[in-house]
Amino acid sequence: MMVVPLVVTLALLISLVEAFWMLPAHVTALNPRLNEASRMNRLRARFTHLLRIRYSRLLARVLRHPGWFVAA
Q1: Residue 10 pLDDT grade (very low, low, confident, very high; cuts 50, 70, 90)
Q2: At what angle do helices 39-64 and 23-30 cross, to 10 degrees?
Q3: DSSP letter at 19?
Q4: How far is 31 from 69, CA to CA, in rounded Å?
Q5: What stretch of H or E contains 14?
Q6: What string of DSSP letters covers 32-67?
Q7: Is-contact 62 69, C-beta < 8 A?
């Protein structure tokens, strides 16, 4: 019985991330007037940049040592 609430919770969390993070980025991309360097846009760009760097490093590490991560 725990599977259904877990799936619903995960779906709602993903939807929340989409609504607060991705959707504003799509809206500003459609309207160039809104693409000004506001504080929130700078924070979002910085966070996204750091996330991409960390993900790339983790992916490279996993591809170099796949056995370690399968065992973990």
Answers
A1: very high
A2: 120
A3: I
A4: 43
A5: helix 3-17
A6: GGG-S--HHHHHHHHHHHHHHHHHHHHHHHHHH-HH
A7: yes
Contact partners, residue 28, CB within 8 Å, separation at least 6: 34, 35, 41
Asked whether 25 and 44 are in contact (CB, 8 A), the reply is: yes
Question: Cα dihedral angle (2, 3, 8, 12), rounded to 10 degrees?
Answer: 90
Question: Average pLDDT in the 24-46 region?
Answer: 71
Q: Can you read off the two tokens belonging to residue 49?
A: 């940049």
pLDDT score for 19: 81
